[in-house]
Amino acid sequence: NLLVLLTLCAGLLFALALQKLRFPYFWRDLFFLFRVVRYGVKLELFRFTSSVCTVLDRFVQQAQRIPDKPFVVYDGRVHTYQDVDRRSNRLANVFHHTAKLKKGDCVAVLMSNEPDFLCVWFGLAKAGCSVAFLNTNIKSKSLLHCFTCCGATTLIVGSGNLLSQWRNSQVHTLLDKLDAASDQPVPAELRACTSLKTPTLYIFTSGTTGLPKAAVISQLQSLKAAAGFWAFGGTEEDVVYIPLPLYHSAASLVGIGGTIQLGATCVLKKKFSASKFWSDCREQGVTIFQYIGELCRYLCNQPKNDLDRDHKVRMGVGNGLRPDVWREFHNRFGKVRMCEVYGSTEGNLCFMNHIGKIGTVGRSNALYKLLFKYDLVKYDMMKDLPAKDQRGFCQRVDKGETGLLLSKVSSISPFFGYAGSKSLTEKKLMRDVFAKGDVYFNTGDLMVEDQHGFICFRDRVGDTYRWKGENVATTEVAESLGLVDFIQEVNVYGVEVPGQEGRAGMAAVITRPGATFDGKKLFEHAMRDLPAYARPLFIRLQEEMEMTSTFKQQKFQLVQSGFNPSRVLDPLYVLDSQQQNYVPLTDSVYQNILSGEHRL
Predict the structure, then answer these.
(1) What's the CA gap between 189 and 135, in Å, rounded?
(2) Which enzyme type, at the first EC level (predicted)?
(3) Tens-place pLDDT, residues 400-440
């Protein structure tokens, strides 16, 4: 018996050692997937019973369970769950009885970040309306397009957002009617939902060209997004910092929805301020913050001080965090757990980096692939299309090879498309991908999955360029150039050169405060760190980088401007191999490039 016991112990120890060696993330994957599957089963029950507990229903439950708990802290003022519930009830009564809005109506909302954004949103939802969030930065033609394409019949404008083009329209002031309105709830059947497919929101995604597209957000998508903080281990004790615009999905679906799901508190900011970020976090006891794009880089660019690690922040949730900024953030502000999430507003696939490995956007394994069908396929950069085999089907890439990410459309992962445009919806779909009749959502993102199941973002299809017969990923070049000591921020893109095939690399650069551009040092770094085809041939010095409202770098205008010194007012430099330097790009040098005298 003793021998058997010793043999069992030895076998168990061997199995554990083998597991740690071959499957080091097994238990963490298992526990995380258990949470995801458990939540998925709950959603399936909603589908099976035709009775959906929406995010709004969850808010009403929380308002009854914890009425006096702070829900939103804004500009130093606390708004409890009960406060927001009662004010949204007043608004719902005004919408239903005075404005005569009906269940199923679509209402557009043009408001900045403030508690009343939430009250209006919830009030409309209580009245049974779907809501379209309008970007407060868009003007005239785009604004009218956004209003009409989602079928909106009414526009609600925040007091600070009344634009000149609406001043001649018939405007009803809600504030005059609120005081007289009842704070008792409108009939619950107005908001009752029987299908997860029911649209609840329209959120606009901006392309590089053309008008914004209205992504249809179903109850299923809003419920999935609301589970993000919970899946990463968030609790009702957490205080969430939301500095992102509420008209985008990150702040509204993940931020506000996630706060409601937990029964937590959120600190809402009118807009992001790098200089006030950490003082806000210390003052409000923030434990989770949302980030996107270059937000964390802005924090790292702030002057250092002795209070950098004096905070309670334990987790950051967002996307677009570059590896160099990730490391610098940890080194300076402590080991805050950074939880990268991959997914687009309209997409049907989500990756979550629950392990926290730097430089990866998510993690996958056999069980995840069983639940959510996705594939990385070969992409032909010359044709700007997925590569096909002799039968006309896509070809899967090998592990470690970059490919276009496609996600299968199914009942578990549906694609709801865009409002008002079947053609735009159809353009995002690929049919007959691996077999006749199958349908996949085309993310437009080039990704790579390594041998351990970690997934890394490489580039957008339109951002990757080809030079000297090789594909160049802008993210990899930007990460390399970001290591140069005088560079604070860099944006890499490809520009057309007359008479040359492909696009040549160009980098817009901002130097650190007090530093000056050193062309020779940059040349030496590029020669040492980058292959010949990936070295940027042109440099554009800028004082300020153009960003989207979600802190993502703008490339389109930079690409359009090119490298012509007569058109670009910023200082331009060109790589000169003979001088082993980046030298000023003058009109004469530009003409030499066009004539071929200056070889690239």
Answers:
(1) 30
(2) ligase
(3) 999 999 999 998 899 999 998 888 899 999 999 999 999 99
Q: 104's torsion region: left (phi>0), alpha (psi -120 to 50) or beta?
A: left
Rounded to whole angstroms, how far apart are CA atoms 21 and 219?
Answer: 42
Question: What does the pLDDT look like over 354-370, one tens digit per residue?
Answer: 999 999 999 998 888 88
Two tokens at 574? Answer: 């060109």
Per-residue pLDDT for 19 more than 60?
Answer: no
Given a contact cutoff of 8 angstroms between Cβ atoms, the answer to whether 349 and 444 are in contact is no
CA distance 295 to 320: 9
Give the whole-angstrom CA distance, residue 193 versus residue 218: 11
* Per-residue b or e along 104-141, where b marks 16 or more CB atoms closer than 10 Å to that residue's CB: ebbbbbbbbbbbbbbbbbbbbbbbbbbbbbbbbebeee
What does DSSP say about strands 465-467 and 429-431: parallel, antiparallel, or unpaired?
unpaired
Pairing of strands 199-205, 154-157: unpaired
Indicate the pTM of the whole model.
0.84
Burial 358-390 (b: 16+ CB within 10 A, else e): ebbbbbbeeebeeebbbbbbbbebeeeebeeee
Write the secondary structure of 175-223 as one string of H (helix), E (strand) and C (coil). Answer: HHHHCCCCCCCCCHHHCCCCCCCCEEEEEEECCCCCCCEEEEEEHHHHH
Q: Are strands 503-511 and 538-541 parallel, antiparallel or unpaired?
A: parallel
Measured CA to CA in angstroms, residue 83 lies from 63, 67, 119, 165, 422 at distances of 9, 8, 9, 33, 41
